[in-house]
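ok new one. same drill as before - structure tokens go in, u give me an amino acid for every spot. 112 of them this time. try not to just spam alanines like last time pls lmao
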């Protein structure tokens, strides 16, 4: 009988709770504060990353435009120089630019 009494005491002291089935369950601020702050930090970090990537892509587009412009200008200048030197337009030439300032450049005729 003493064993029954002990089992009965254990059952009463341990409250057996059924899972909540309410449609709306209120949660106190103290329990959700860390989660709320974590979500806020996540949103701010994602926003910062988005802005940073957008600025990076804009700058990248500007640099690619500059590369394209410089490349086009280089070919235009080489073509104008070729015409100025009165090189035969039917032959293929490659412009070899100097490695350092003050050195000579060359047009080398390519075999076709």
């Amino acid at each position: 009988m003493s064993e029954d009494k002990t089992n009965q005491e254990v059952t009463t002291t341990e409250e057996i709770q059924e899972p909540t089935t309410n449609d709306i369950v209120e949660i106190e601020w103290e329990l959700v504060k860390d989660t709320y702050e974590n979500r806020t930090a996540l949103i701010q970090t994602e926003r910062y990353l988005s802005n940073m990537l957008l600025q990076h892509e804009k700058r990248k587009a500007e640099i690619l435009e500059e590369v394209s412009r410089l490349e086009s200008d280089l070919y235009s200048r080489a073509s104008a120089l070729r015409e100025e030197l009165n090189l035969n337009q039917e032959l293929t030439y490659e412009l070899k630019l100097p490695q350092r300032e003050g050195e000579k450049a060359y047009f080398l005729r390519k075999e076709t």
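The radius of gyration is 39 Å. and btw The longest strand covers residues 92-96.
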